[in-house]
Amino acid sequence: MILNPIGTTATTNTGASANATNDPAAMQDRFLKLLVAQLNNQDPMNPLDNAQMTTQMAQINTVTGIQTLNLTMQTMAEEFSTMQQIQGISLIGRSVLTEGDRLSVSDGKGKGYFNLDNTATDVQVDIVTPGGVVVDTVDLGAQDKGRRSFEWDAAGYSGNAADLRFRVRATSGETAVTATGLSEAQVVATGSNAGALTLTLDNGDIVNYFRIHSVL
């Protein structure tokens, strides 16, 4: 005679809440009551043997263990989400770097950042319009691997310098070196998307927190 610890044969209180139904301790209590009732009413000619008892105990331990783990993971997820929101709020007003090619312009100076995958013997940064027309080129010469920055004098540009982009060309001898452009922007608000922290930037972009390369 095998008892199903999560079956529907047990008498339940229809007024119990969903939390009590899913609570591991309450579930284990119901199982023990069912087990005692089964022992009291077992067929003397076909009693419950040790193997059946062991199987049933293993089943309830597995179910309650999974329930406890689920509750623990849910609590951890909620705490992590709260910590993310607090961290996001602390970034409001701070400047951050995200992947992009927008030129940051302030006080007549254009500025940008980029990551070099390897050391380069020659690095050139083209300042270009949204249509791809080269306005000027900044010669940075040899640069080490890692994050680098550059400045460009935008005072002589007659158009809106805030619309300009940049493009990095890096080589080591005859071999091209991969360069990833980084744009600077200020965090103006925070939010959430599918449980993940998002940041609203002053350039209008909304990015996930994990896309932030650095906080300046």
TrEMBL record:
<keyword id="KW-1005">Bacterial flagellum biogenesis</keyword>
<dbReference type="InterPro" id="IPR005648">
    <property type="entry name" value="FlgD"/>
</dbReference>
<feature type="domain" description="FlgD/Vpr Ig-like">
    <location>
        <begin position="101"/>
        <end position="163"/>
    </location>
</feature>
<feature type="domain" description="FlgD Tudor-like">
    <location>
        <begin position="83"/>
        <end position="210"/>
    </location>
</feature>
<dbReference type="GO" id="GO:0044781">
    <property type="term" value="P:bacterial-type flagellum organization"/>
</dbReference>
<dbReference type="InterPro" id="IPR025963">
    <property type="entry name" value="FLgD_Tudor"/>
</dbReference>
<dbReference type="Pfam" id="PF13861">
    <property type="entry name" value="FLgD_tudor"/>
</dbReference>
<keyword id="KW-0282">Flagellum</keyword>
<feature type="region of interest" description="Disordered">
    <location>
        <begin position="1"/>
        <end position="21"/>
    </location>
</feature>
<dbReference type="Pfam" id="PF03963">
    <property type="entry name" value="FlgD"/>
</dbReference>
<protein>
    <recommendedName>
        <fullName>Basal-body rod modification protein FlgD</fullName>
    </recommendedName>
</protein>
<keyword id="KW-0966">Cell projection</keyword>
<keyword id="KW-0969">Cilium</keyword>
<dbReference type="InterPro" id="IPR025965">
    <property type="entry name" value="FlgD/Vpr_Ig-like"/>
</dbReference>
<comment type="function">
    <text>Required for flagellar hook formation. May act as a scaffolding protein.</text>
</comment>
<dbReference type="Pfam" id="PF13860">
    <property type="entry name" value="FlgD_ig"/>
</dbReference>
<feature type="compositionally biased region" description="Low complexity">
    <location>
        <begin position="7"/>
        <end position="21"/>
    </location>
</feature>
<comment type="similarity">
    <text>Belongs to the FlgD family.</text>
</comment>
